[in-house]
Amino acid sequence: MTETLADTMEALDLTKKPTVDGEEDFVDPWNVVGSSVKGIDYEKLIKRFGCTRIDSALIERFEKVTGKPAHHLLKRGVFFSHRDLHTILTLHEQGKPFYLYTGRGPSSSSIHMGHLIPFVFTKYLQEVFNVPLVIQLTDDEKYLWKDLTLEETQKLAVENAKDIIALGFDVEKTFIFSDFTFIGQCPEFYQNMIRIQKRVTVNQIKGNFGFGDSDCIGKISFPATQAAPAFSNSFPFIFGNRKDIPCLIPCAIDQDTYFRMTRDVAPRLGCPKPALIHSTFFPALQGAQTKMSASDANSSIFLTDTPKALKTKVNKYAFSGGQTSVEEHRRLGGNCEVDISYKYLTFFLEDDARLEKIREDYTSGAMLTGEIKAELIAVLTPIVTSHQESRKKITDEIVKQFMTPRPMKCGL
Ligand code: TRP
Prior knowledge:
The protein has 412 residues and is an alpha/beta fold. The chain is built from 20 helices and eleven strands. It is 48% helix and 11% strand. Strand 5, helix 6 (113-129) and strand 6 form a beta-alpha-beta unit. The protein binds tryptophan.
């Protein structure tokens, strides 16, 4: 998840970096390369992946069924696509159980703003539905894909868990696990991994994930490890031996590849297919062709950045949709479609009226590039500083509580 946004660009095998010749965007769990400054063409992705756009009727039903206002990330189309969300809403209506599953690949200790998005939204979903949540930290995935030692990835998992916990998840309803630590403690989880492995061929994996014959065999079997948490009997301490409790997976759209495979296998295991709700990518400061990467310090706002660093990065690197001179800008106005400060505001500024006013003023030329950047800095700075405050309070003991297999307290 990226992230979960996965640190896609970072995980790239550079020898195989896909090229985009101005025609098609390239998206798989490790590569996101857009062909236009407006970013990825999500409509095309929806078609290619075979998922469904979230339309206003679905958002209306969401509000009606939950009795809660839709989150701004949902209303503004950051979470824009789904599979079987209607089924989940019907379960909620009928008071039937389901759970949430999301994850993160711990590839770096420096979490950036983009990594927060799926977790902020997942927390909202958990509060709205009052259901158990499992969060997978794929230290094994990052060990396989990156130049990190096993010990390093495990450490990063714990560091990342602290950032996730700092968002305010409820310990009574949230189980966070690292693959390296947890799988050996839970035979049922491992059994599901192997059940899945038995039902997917090398050909299917190669085609969908783009693996080649020189990739290590760990990569080829890893998708089963990310699929296993989508089946409720992988967590007997939460769900007993029930394998029929469905899950909803909030994730960035690049993770859909894993879950298409999971949905394909599910009926053959006698399990429900996981439902999904997909987000767009969080763009790099330099522009919307890619998502942010933790490996390029200047492409991202990190949760560890000082207010000063944040300000400098926005002013220096945030790609502008403004004109080259003030006179031109006043005359022609700015382009919110490519302006990164505006894009970021749609993610983090909750006030709809304020956002709309900024859009109007920037588009008309009444607001200058320096001014929209100042707006963004004013919105991001308190988010980052208050995150740092919350994170300081997360002790090893608290992490241990979240990461201990145990029953969850929510109506099961
Ligand atoms: N592969 C994801 C990443 O690299 C981590 C992940 C595991 C995940 N399980 C997930 C993300 C479920 C979203 C949903 O970030």
